[in-house]
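We both want to read discrete structure tokens more fluently, so let's practise on a single case. Would you write everything just below, so we can both look at the same thing?
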Amino acid sequence: MEQKKNESWKKWLKNGVFVVACIVVAVLLLGGAAYLTLRTMRGCRSGNGQTAQATPTPEPTPLPDRLYSAEKNPVFAPDVDKLDLSEAHYADYAELLADPSRWIDLTPEGANGFTVIRSIDLGCSYVVEDGEYYRLGEGEDGKGLVDVLLTDLDLDDEPDLLYTYHFGANEDTLAKVGWFSFATHESALSGFAQRDGFLSLIEEDGNYILFRAARSVDYETGTFGLTLTERLGEINEVMGRIELIMDAKPE
């Protein structure tokens, strides 16, 4: 009798161990499956089963060194008869020339009693003072006035305008510097020129520095920005003329 009880107990113990082992194996299998499923889902989210990386902060968009915004468009309609353009330009662009929204205001900060404007479509540019129009630059094609500073270049305690402009057509274009005197209402134009690209001006401690510049433009509104790319030298006035003292190039 005692022998049968021992055999029954051993059989029960053996079956119990087997059941526990099965439960442990099942738990391990379920845990492994869950782990693999989670890894797979993470891999799918990060792409190609690789660990997801933090999104890098994008580099900020560079701002231009100078911005001429179309938000300052003139509130007056230019007097087309005073623009002094060729008959062909009057015939082809009469409606656009008379439209205030097709002009951009480039008047420098600190100006008093005058406005500087440029046609978005033609590029011709003017100082407008007391109802009179004074042409800036030369030629009727190109981008016209590009950059302008209010200055006293000849140190006569009267305001002047130092400006850069662009003119010409197709591949035959030039960028130059001009100086407008309010005393004479005339421009002195530089004898030097740059064939490709644009020119810009910066005032530094009373000196006027000329730079090559890249130009970005919104052709719909006329808004444009200038980014300085290379310093060229210093602008000076000598006996009513403007001269460029070129920077020394490193050997």
Summary: Confidence is low (pLDDT under 50) at residues 1-6, 32-53. The two ends are 115 Å apart (CA to CA). Residues 17 and 36 are 28 Å apart (CA to CA). DSSP finds two helices and 13 strands in the chain.
